[in-house]
Specification:
single chain, Aspartate Aminotransferase, domain 2, 2 domains, 39% helix, 388 residues, Aspartate Aminotransferase, domain 1, alpha/beta, eight-stranded mixed β-sheet, 16% strand, 14 strands, four-stranded antiparallel β-sheet
């Protein structure tokens, strides 16, 4: 009766089952996986609420690419970061997930392929499968820092590959695309008639400057490219449901892509009027939240490094974002480590296989976690790994 797209195993895994049992027992679990800024104890300015107090929210005037006022607010956001993007190149969506679905509709036919990094956020397979598209992975390699395996990426390209996805910076490795890598990616996509899709939601959260780091892919001119972001991360407002993509590349190809994207968007008209009316004020108010996130992430990274120094848990190099990846002894599997930490220490972390790490054993923690919980969680991790 149901679509073959639903081929996943919906049964809860062992970690989910143990967590549910702990909570039934009333245990105080320290959750080091919290990634929702609205639940992480940040102070939101009152202007977030005032931004929605506008009589225009009662008027519905749908525009497929989004209201020009909101697109201009996004363009101003790029301009503040030193990048000129015309509003006519910006198309609004309800989220980056929706932007992915639009792009897969635009670029692929059923059975076609897109390339996505490994390790990375595990949503790609689900989004692609919903569009009857296959995800082929290309490797990120670690040698004291993360890099794209460009040879491995090129080898993954087939006759049915239509796009390459980069996450800039990656989640959870926190690694940015470098200028030399971007040049190679653009050449490959241009020569093989593929598009380049850049997920840039964490781009504002670098821990330090790096002149070798690529800027936004909204500036790409030699191949068709799409740079995505949204209020969820840049303003810590996931509940407002406003994302966007900036379309770049050769002028004729860019115009044709945008026209087709407008047709797709016109079919759904998913972006709400209130958030478009409020977009400029929400972005301005979000600066205070973004500052808090930066401060906490940097402080927690320093705390984690100090807490785990000299232990068997090694924090991998990270350039930005909200997460850290810790390499732990392979004396146990990642699943066994996470189950044991939850059972013995009431401590919740994510195993590396959630993000498709190619080998064992890695644990993932969120730097967004509330300070008291994070501090105590690191202390418990230190006790666990000090003698491991």
């Amino acid at each position: 009766m149901f679509s073959s797209r639903f081929h996943w195993d919906f049964r809860p895994n062992r970690l989910t089952e143990l967590l549910a049992e702990k909570r039934r027992q009333g245990a105080e679990v320290l959750d080091l996986t919290e990634s929702n800024p609205t639940r992480a104890g940040f102070e939101y300015p009152r202007e977030v609420l005032r931004a929605l107090d506008d009589p225009r929210v009662l008027s519905y005037q749908p525009e497929p690419a989004g209201a020009m006022e909101a697109r201009e607010a996004v363009a101003a956001c790029y301009a503040a970061r030193g990048c000129e993007v015309e509003p006519r190149r910006i198309l609004l969506t309800a989220s980056t997930s929706e932007a992915y679905s639009y792009l897969f509709k635009l670029l692929t036919d059923p059975g076609d392929q897109v390339l996505a990094p490994r390790p990375s956020y595990p949503l790609f397979d689900y989004l692609a499968n919903m569009e009857s598209v296959e995800v082929r992975q290309y490797p990120l390699v670690y040698h004291g820092g993360w890099a794209i395996d460009l040879e491995g990426l090129a080898a993954a390209v087939t006759e049915r590959t239509r796009a390459v996805v980069v996450v800039h910076p990656n989640n959870p490795t926190g690694s940015y695309v470098k200028r030399a890598e971007l040049e190679a990616l653009v050449r490959l996509c241009r020569d093989r008639d593929m598009a380049l899709i850049s997920d840039e939601v964490f781009s504002d959260y670098a821990f330090a400057p790096d002149p070798s780091r690529a800027g936004t892919l909204a500036e790409v001119t030699d191949c068709l490219a799409f740079a995505m972001s949204g209020l969820s991360k840049i303003a810590g407002l996931p509940q407002m449901k406003l994302g966007w993509m900036a379309v770049s590349g050769p002028a004729q190809l860019r115009r044709e892509a945008f026209e087709k994207l407008e047709w797709i968007a016109d079919t759904y008209l998913s972006v709400s009027t209130p958030v478009q009316v409020a977009a400029s004020r929400l972005m301005a108010a979000g600066e205070a939240v973004r500052w808090q996130i930066r401060e906490r992430s940097a402080a927690h990274l320093a705390l984690a490094r100090e807490a785990l120094a000299g232990t068997a848990a090694n924090i991998l190099a990270v350039e930005g974002g909200w997460y850290i990846a810790m390499q732990v002894p392979r004396t146990r599997s990642e699943e066994e480590w996470t189950l044991d930490l939850l059972a013995r220490e009431n401590l919740l972390l994510q195993p590396g296989f959630f993000y498709d790490f190619a080998s064992e054993a890695f644990l993932i923690a969120s730097l967004l976690t509330a300070p008291g919980i994070f501090r105590e969680g690191m202390a418990r991790l230190r006790r666990q790994f000090a003698g491991a």
